[in-house]
UniProtKB/TrEMBL annotation:
Compartments, as annotated in UniProt: Cell envelope
Keyword Disulfide bond recorded: yes
Signal peptide: 1-20
Protein name per its UniProtKB record: TlpA family protein disulfide reductase
Origin superkingdom: Bacteria
């Protein structure tokens, strides 16, 4: 029986997908939709909201103004929008023309996810990065000014 259980455990280890552990201090180096380079490391000293969203996601669209307002009213907070979307970049730009956010947005396609961030299990997904560059909080679902303020503190 012991051999059977051991064999079953070994089989499960090889059958289950392996996921890398997200680093405590993740990096992002992308080109934004306006063609500018973005490096998360250059934001040290500030809180950074890393928000994964898509143009087709209704809760994402609803939370974008809250994130934009929070960033605009908190001088020590920055944001990067990650359009986790296979849509043509010109369509995302057109969407942002109608729904301006005031922070940089980069597109990441599902076949080329960010290497240091876990792939979102649903959208929206938001990571709050502390001024030291470490992950402070992970939100699944929409964020609000209140939830961001509670996570950052006074």
């Amino acid at each position: 029986m012991k051999l059977f259980v051991t064999s079953l455990l070994v089989a499960c280890m090889f059958a289950a997908p392996a996921y890398a552990v997200m680093p405590a201090q993740p990096s992002i180096k992308v080109t934004t939709l306006d063609g500018k380079p973005y490096d998360l490391a250059s934001q040290r000293g500030h809180w950074v909201i890393v928000n994964f969203w898509a143009t087709w996601c209704a809760p994402c669209i609803k939370e974008l103004p809250d994130i934009a307002h929070f960033v605009a009213t908190h001088p020590n907070v920055r944001a990067i929008g990650i359009a986790y979307d296979d849509t043509d970049p010109s369509d995302i730009r057109a969407f942002l023309d109608k729904h301006p956010v005031g922070f940089p947005v980069a597109q990441v396609t599902m076949d080329k996810p960010l290497k240091d961030f876990d792939e979102p299990l649903g959208l929206p997904t938001t990571w709050l990065i502390a001024p030291d560059g470490k992950v402070a909080k992970h939100f699944m679902g929409p964020v609000t000014s209140a939830s961001l303020g509670a996570a950052i503190g006074p």
